[in-house]
## 1
Amino acid sequence: MGRYPPPAGASPYPGLECSGTILALGPNVPSRWAVGDKVCALLSGGGYADKVVAPAGQLLPIPEGVSLTHAAGLPEVACTVWSTVFMTSHLSPGESFLIHGGSSGIGTFAIQIAKHLGIKVFVTAGSEEKLAACKALGADVCINYRTEDFVERIKQETNGKGVDVILDNIGGSYLQRNLNSLGVDGRLFIIGFQGGIAAEVNLQAVLARRLTIQAAGLRNRSLANKAEIVSEVEKNVWPAVAAGKVKPVIYKTFPLCEAAEAHRLMEASTHIGKILLLP
């Protein structure tokens, strides 16, 4: 829809992650990579294609036990969740974590990696089917945002303390309620603005409970920053994937020529997990 313009120099076409086989190497590519390797990659755009060019620092090996096809659904969600929630907000074992949109691609990944690391997981979603899927992935508390006030439910479940970290893709319309849901030293990380970019908030809670509000995307980061994130994901997340503790959740696949149909499915918001395009 043109609401997410690509960074300067990036492909104008959609697609921020992919998987495939290396066909050729540039002159400065590290020796760990070879023609014929099966890999997945974080992209700045252009993934809706038969072939892509990707910086070597944004390549990942296909995790053991994951198909080449399903691996396409890992790089962007893994890099988003690890860079925001763990590298920046320092979510730690024993803490609590609220994920808005728990049944999304990012949400289904975040539930699994957080549970693997010993974190109590709260999620919101908009249907009982989606909440059941989140529960099956390990979420501890599942809240239907259409029928429940998530702030009140979180207070009930935490004896009034609130959660430690929130991953939010809604933005403006949820800002005050997110602040009200955080405990002392709580951290809010915003990665989307489905609920708008503007809000009026009462900052008293931020001061009283020493709250942190942060926001970041992945696409506009420097090559060096992306390479650092990819390296951290390979080191910290890939072993959990290889061990079967974290799995890509794939709802449906479409041939690339049916990309419009795939978008219609995504816009209907009935899917759970990722939708993949196959060239």
## 2
Amino acid sequence: MPPVKKSKKGKRKSKDGKLKIVRARGAPPALPPELRALDTEWWYAFLNKQVELEHAVPPDEGEAFRHFFRTSRKTFDYICSIVREDLISRPPSGLINIEGRLLSVEKQVAIAMRRLASGDSQVSVGTAFGVGQSTVSQVTWRFIESMEDRARYHLAWPSQERLEQIKAVLEDAYGLPNCCGGVDATHVIMTLPAVESSADWCDHAKNYSMFLQGIVDDQMRFIDIVTGWPGSMTFSRLMKCSGFFKLCEAGERLNGSVKVSAEGAEIREYIAGDSCYPLLPWLMTPFEGKHLPAPLQNFNARQKAARLLGTNALARLKGSWRILHKVMWRPDKNKLPSIILVCCLLHNILIDCHDELLPSVQLPEHHDTGYNRENCEQVDPNGKVMRENITAHLQHCEASKFLCN
């Protein structure tokens, strides 16, 4: 369709073949055959609205799409295919735009993803799409319900074959044998009505918040999450309340092949975490103290590189889906875990679809600024032996490299 008159915007191809936004009237460029059956009218109307509101818009159309929705158009269409049946089978009788037409599946997904990506108010998002605040609320929740039900396969504990791949990559990158990933947690800050405000939800930074703990693999893909717990808990308590902890303690997770070190010691599967977590046979934390011997420093450096996978994944998550980074205005605490889960699913989908984020997306600072972490004093004797075995193994590997050189 021709662009709206106010913006006087059109599209044309540049010399490198990419679509560029230009100051001219005219119809949008021809779409490839696979997209012609899909609704793209909403995109040009939205793009023109951003220019009309004098918002910064990348000059390349593909980058502009990723800027606003975090995904390429191809991945966006894939997400639409996941939820299409639900959004069509339950006709949105009340979901209409200012021209009185029913919203297409593509426009509904765009509204929901823009709300999650920007963290802007429902009023602001509605203005950008020509719909009301209540419509943004309905559309976003319908999208979340459908994704939660239909996209779960994008966040699952890996098969043993996949775990072997993860372990091989991490050992090659950091020298850590049998490491299956990193773990970290973050606070999702919110305001609460006075009737719901309680000490349970008030964390030590004096914010009302909900915890999200994520375990990630070598590609920073979430392979296990736990959320819904108050931010007032400690990291160690959060871990112990998780289903992941119970499965590991019961020997039903991180129970794969055991590696035998050069000294004949057994090293089981484990994940790497900060000192705010307990030292367990399947959870390796760093050595504490100043002026540590070289072997312990070597272990700490390699263990830190692995655990930062979790830290960086959370920074990427909250940078991409800013609704988790901004202060959420009076969310329904029963629905908030679903919002968090769907953001994690979208994070994984981007990785699974090999989508690249714009460099400006990841948070420039830590994902949990304003929070201090307390060291956990719990040390499991078997965990201590495991850490010593790994340290000795790393020392042996360092010595072997020295002799080879």
